Structure formats: C-alpha cells, structure tokens
Amino acid sequence: MLESDLLHPEILQVLGSIGHSSKILIADGNFPFATKTNRHAHKVFLNLAPGVVGACDVLKAICSVVPIESAMVMSPPRAGEFAVPNPQIWDDFGGILAKVDFDRGLQKVGRFVFYDCCKSDDCHLVIATGEQKIFANLLLTIGVTK
Predict the structure, then answer these.
(1) Given 3.40.1650.10, 3.50.20.10, 3.40.50.620, 3.40.50.720, which CATH number is that of 9-142?
(2) CA 41, CA 31: separation in Å to the nearest integer?
(3) What stretches of 3-131 show up as alpha helix (H) in DSSP?
C-alpha cells in the first residue's frame, strides 16, 4: 500500500512520466474537456456525480506528490451573469497551495487565454472533477524538487 495522499494509479503513472514545466489541468464540471484541452493530454474523469470529486480534493492529492511552480485560474468576466470579482474557491485553492509553501499567488487570465494554455503541448494531464462551483478550473505547472 502506498503511503501518499494520492493513490489513483492512472494519475500516478502520468505524473511519473512527466516532469518540470509540465502542466496539469484540474477542471470543474462545466469545463469543455473535449474541445479546449490538448488532444494528446491524458484525461482522467473523476466526475462521478455533481460535487463528487471536488477540485480542492484533487488539488490536495496532487500537491502531496509534486512540487508546484505556478498556478493559473480563469478570470470571470467583469460584467454580466457570471461576473464574480473573486470566486470563493480561489481562496480555497490559495489555502491549499500555501500549505505546500507555494506563495506566488494565482495567475489570473481571461477565458480564451486560459483555454489556449490548456490546449498547449505542455498540458499533459487533464483531471475532470464534479466540482460545481464556477471558475474552479486550475492549471498547475510542475516545479522542481528542492
């Protein structure tokens, strides 16, 4: 039995085959996985039901096995139905990242820039969650072990 917070064999296999500067997308239940990610990225579907498994659960597990160099989120629009100045889940992400000595803050980018980053050749792992909170998409860049 592994003594780690991450036990999912498929995710561990992918993490073991990628390295520094590789990107991992933790996506909420609304993310368009089929059209807005690197078509060669390994996709793991943990979206069992609405709210299960959550994005924060996945982030905690990922942070237990790889160092994080940067973290990017999709900014909501400034006006309209989905205008939210600072989604609550971003504070949750920040709290989890702070526990692993990540203090660089979340990089906020617009929707289409975020999609372009998710479609890049560097994005090797896409994890679909059942997260119901909006703007709960997080693109992590793996760092180096100190």
Answers:
(1) 3.40.1650.10
(2) 15
(3) 9-17, 55-63, 88-98, 111-118
N- to C-terminal Cα separation, the chain = 26
Residues linked to residue 23 through DSSP beta bridges, in sequence order: 123, 141
Cα atoms in the Cβ-side hemisphere of radius 13 Å centred on 32: 8
d(CA 140, CA 84): 22
Instruction: Write out pLDDT tens, residues 26-82.
Output: 999 999 999 999 999 999 999 999 999 999 999 999 999 999 999 999 998 877 766
Q: Using only C-alpha atoms, what is the Rg of the chain?
A: 14
Our measurement of the distance from residue 11's CA atom to the centroid of its chain's CA atoms, rounded to an integer in Å, reads: 13
Helix (H) or strand (E) holding 139: strand 138-142
pTM strictly above 0.70: yes
